Amino acid sequence: MIERLIEPRLRSAAAQQPVVVLTGPRQSGKTTLCRAIFPDRPYVNLEPLDQREFARRDPRAFLRSVRDGAVIDEIQRVPDLLSYIQADVDEDPRAGRFILTGSQNLLLLAAVTQTLAGRAAMLELLPLSSEELLGAGMMADDPFATIIAGGYPRIHDRKLVPSVWLADYVAAYVERDVRQVLNVGDLFAFQTFLGLAAGRASQLLSLAGLGSDAGVTQPTARQWLSVLEATYVAWRLPPLHGNFRKRLVKTPKLCFYDTGLLCHLVGIRTRDELVRHPLRGPIFENWVISEVLKWHRHRGLVPRMSFYRDRAGLEVDLIVEAGGVTRAVEVKSSATIADDFFDALDAFAELRRGCDRLVIHAGSARQHRTDRLALPWSELHTISWA
Questions:
Q1: Which of 93, 288, 359, 384 shows a CA-CA span of 20 to 30 A to 165?
Q2: Domains in the chain, ordered, with CATH?
Q3: What SS3 state is found at 359?
Q4: How confident is the model at residue 108 (pLDDT cuts 50, 70, 90)?
Q5: How far apart are CA 23 and CA 232, in angstroms?
């Protein structure tokens, strides 16, 4: 099993709270990790119909069958069970009794917040980060090969062809998860929407434009975007707000959790296709942003991430704020460092005094200049983002 960075945080949470909820995309490694860390706990998967019906129809008997605790997989399949777990842990609040996993983000978070507030720790396990792949000796030495492969563990564990595995993943996702979250009648239209959304990765999100291109109304586009967020496919990076005496863009950017899936959705199948593709820059930017998100989430941290764009055209790809420090990040898919890479960062530094300026590029050179650092993609994880 590939060592996951979240493991210490998961063990710590289980030593303090009676319930730990680990969410993340399907196939991100949640079950494998929990069963490896808690081998003494019985394992129950609520995906099979018989187990699901047992938990739904007689939740008290179901919990009696795992009186000393259990790893319960796909808890979102029986959300009402959370109320019975609440009553159970109130009577027996031993730490780490129930380890719950789920693959629906927003819906599960709302249910846990309502029923298990103060009793549960919430953690997220995203697909493998470059740091985890590097630690396992599985990361490619080329940024675009790394991006195409993505981070789903099974692809790397079994050395599968990403495009083949991801085709099955998308088919199963559309047929199963989408219908669980929302009654999408026209699955072909949703798949079209999904591909068009992927083509807008790292770009400002216009729901009206996206809906129009997909042939659906703006309210439908909004609903379908909520499906992508709820099932850990995509998320919105907010714009930076503040008193800059500038007219700032208020529209978020659309980002995808996994760049292998992103490439597959826009029809890119190989590393060479990605290098030549007009979306190479936005996809590389998405990869950097998702890596920074994983750096935080796999350490149990909530990041303060945004981007900056004003009406005058000044844009900074990523802003990360932590501990009173602002780090402005420019992302370049070029392998060669050019002097103008820092232009936008220098202009932003005039507005936000004292910010750190960082360029992350697709090459191998590291350059440290006064108050500025150019970092190769392979060393992104060496930055202490928090």
A1: 288
A2: 7-124 (3.40.50.300), 130-280 (1.10.10), 305-382 (no CATH)
A3: strand
A4: low
A5: 9
